[in-house]
Structures are given as C-alpha cells and as structure tokens.
Design goal:
Length: 385
C-alpha cells in the first residue's frame, strides 16, 4: 500500500477475531493499522493488537531497513492499538513515546509504566518536527475515548485519524458493499454516542488541507472516497437522515406480530416508500439494526407484551438506540398482547429522554390481526409517507 514516499503502512490483518470488542460480528475480519514516517527522525504511529505483535515488529523492522525509530506516537490507548507499547520501548530504549496526558495515565494502568523519563506529553496544537515533516496534534476527546489525539502531517497533507473514519473489515479482502456499509455499522456501534465530539473534530479538520486520511481501522482514504466519507460523517455525527425510507424493527413469539410487520412493509412498498428495511431484533445482527435505525428518518417498533412488560429483545434494542443518543426521528408502534397489551407504553417510556423524537400512532393487536388492524396498518403506512 503506497501512502507517500516517506509514510509506510506497517499494520496487520486479523482473521481470527469473531467478535470485535466482544460484541460486533466481523465476517470480513479486522485491520489494526499502524504507520511509520521515515524522515530525519523516525516516528511510528500507534501499535497493534497483542496477538499480532510479532508480525507488526517484523513489518516495522522491514520498513526501518536498519534505522532506529525516535518516536512512538500513541493516539489511542485501546489495547487493539496500544498493546505493543512495552515491546517497542524495550526494543528501542532510546525512543520517546508521544501521547496526551490522559493517555499516559491509562498507559500506567494498562502496562505498569507511564515512561516518565522517556515521554513527550502533547496537547492541542502542539507540534513535533521530524525534519522535512512536521506533525501537529489535535485533541479529539471522546472520539471515542477521552485520551484520543489525531495527528496532521502538513508536508504530505495526511491526517492520522485514530479510530475516526474507520470501518470493520481486514484490508486483504474486498468488501463487496464498499466503504460506507461497514463504516456506518462501525460508526454507530462504537462512536455514535459522541456525535457532538465528532462534529468538533470535523470542524478542526476542516481548517487544514487534508488529502489523505490514515485511520486505525479500515482503508486509507483519498480523493472522492475521502470526500464521501467526510460527507457521511457530517450526517452521522449530526444525527441527520442519510437515506429516505422506513426501518421496521420487530420481535415476534408466535408469528402474529411478524405477520403484521410483513403487511405494513408490503403496504409501504405499494404506496411508493423508497426503502423499507425490516429486521428481527431476536435473530438479526443488532449492530446492523442500529445502523439502519440511524440511517433512515422513520422507525416502526413492533413487539409483543411479555410478562406484563416489553419483550426483552426489543427492550435491549431500544436501549442500544438511546445509549447512542437516538434523535431527530419519527417513531410509530405496533404492539401485541392477548390480555393487557403494554408493549407500546414501555417502548414510549424508553424513548422519553430522546431529543426531537416524534412519537406517532400505535396499532394494538390482540393476539392476531383483525380487519380493523389491517385498516389501521394501511393508515399507518400513509402516516409514514
């Protein structure tokens, strides 16, 4: 992978991982990116996951071609990026580690040392001259950890963006859906809660000329792909609507709620809805469901009453949304209950703290759909269009 004459890629691909961060399905694996800047002084940008320390050291050693690194820049302390700090510092005892003050506190917690006599603490606007290249550090707290910095190289106009603008997937396999799909699932799963902080970072980034973005996960971005990624990040971090359509998330025990959802989806399509995304919160990938809930401007939640409350899988799904600051959306409801339907009341209660969420109509089914319910679903389809 060519980045520039002086910047080399030294990252690794992980096809062993099944659940990234213990919860995200990654069928295409994961990339842990790291880079080295070869100038009068040599700077290494982050390390990789502990399982790939040997491979990373081999990549770094090959790129150095006999040279000795001067700096290790630690932008983010999550262990999939910081796990080889000790290994690096032991291998090159004259090297200096560069990070934020908050990162050094975490470094001691994770690895037993904050390298008090071998460190350079940096903050907003601080610079590090390597020779031809000068690095400028920008703080990016809560994108998505508090210690995060990103780094701008003004010579090659490269932004090392930490976890920002990353995506799921290893780099040695082609993603048939392109960048946006797994980047969206990654963003809303991992970073989505922190939209205001991402907006602040985008504002800082807009003040400099960025031709290339080197993230810690996913491909290096340039040209039209970079422009599109920045456009989407503006929408996502502002909790805007990316695509027109309706997302229906449902849970069903004996199939009656599911049949109501199928009917509503069919009516929406017949009436010209540009996109209807349907997901079962019991069986489908929850992170993909969250992604779609944020992608579209309208959401229907459909679930039965269970033990006098809301079916657990739907409660968990709504909590995934509210934990990520779900907002600026229209939400309607389908509930089912054979005795005392209570699902809609519980769903609305869970959404109470959401900003600018308009609660629409509720269709109440008692056990199985009636002709009246079918007419109500037809009216709901009109309401959503």
């Amino acid at each position: 992978m060519f980045i520039s004459n002086d910047i080399r890629y030294i990252g690794v691909n992980d096809h062993q991982v099944t659940l990234f961060e213990g919860q995200y399905d990654v069928p295409l694996g994961m990339a842990y990116n790291s880079y080295v800047i070869l100038d009068e002084k040599v700077a290494v940008m982050d390390t990789v996951d502990a399982h790939f320390g040997g491979e990373w050291m081999d990549n770094l050693t090959a790129a150095l071609a006999g040279r000795t690194p001067d700096y290790l820049v630690v932008q983010h302390m999550e262990p999939d990026h910081s796990a080889n700090i000790v290994r690096f510092m032991d291998a090159w005892p004259a090297a200096t580690v560069v990070a934020s003050q908050a990162a050094f506190r975490m470094m001691k917690q994770f690895y037993g040392s904050d390298y008090a006599d071998r460190r350079l603490a940096v903050g907003e606007g601080d610079t590090l001259a390597l020779g031809h290249h000068t690095l400028t550090f920008l703080t990016a707290p809560m994108v998505h950890w508090p210690e995060v910095i990103v780094t701008y190289d003004s010579t090659d106009k490269v932004l090392f963006s930490a976890d920002g603008l990353g995506k799921f997937g290893a780099l040695d396999v082609e993603d048939p859906e392109g960048w946006a799909c797994e980047a969206r699932r990654y963003y809303f799963g991992i970073v989505g809660k922190f939209g205001a902080q991402v907006q602040a970072l985008l504002k800082k980034a807009s003040a400099v000329d960025i031709q290339t973005v080197c993230p810690l996960h996913g491909p290096v971005l340039t040209g039209a792909e970079l422009a599109e990624a920045l456009r989407l990040y503006g929408i996502w971090s502002g909790y805007g609507v990316e695509s027109e359509g309706v997302m229906i998330a449902y849970a069903s025990v004996y199939g009656n709620t599911e049949r109501a959802v199928e009917l509503l989806a069919r009516k929406l399509k017949e009436k010209g809805c540009p996109k209807v995304a349907v997901t079962c919160v019991q069986r489908d990938d929850w992170a993909e469901a969250v992604e779609d809930a944020f992608r579209y401007g309208k959401l229907v939640l459909a679930a039965p009453t269970y033990n006098g409350f809301l079916f657990p899988a739907m409660r968990e799904f709504i909590q995934h949304l509210t934990e990520r600051n779900y907002q600026n959306r229209q939400v309607a409801f389908i509930e089912n209950g054979s005795r005392a339907p209570a699902a809609a009341k519980e769903m609305k209660k869970l959404l109470e703290g959401c900003k600018n969420v308009t609660l629409g109509s509720t269709v109440t089914i008692r056990s199985a759909m009636t002709e009246e319910n079918k007419a109500q679903l037809d009216a709901l389809a009109d309401e959503l269009l």
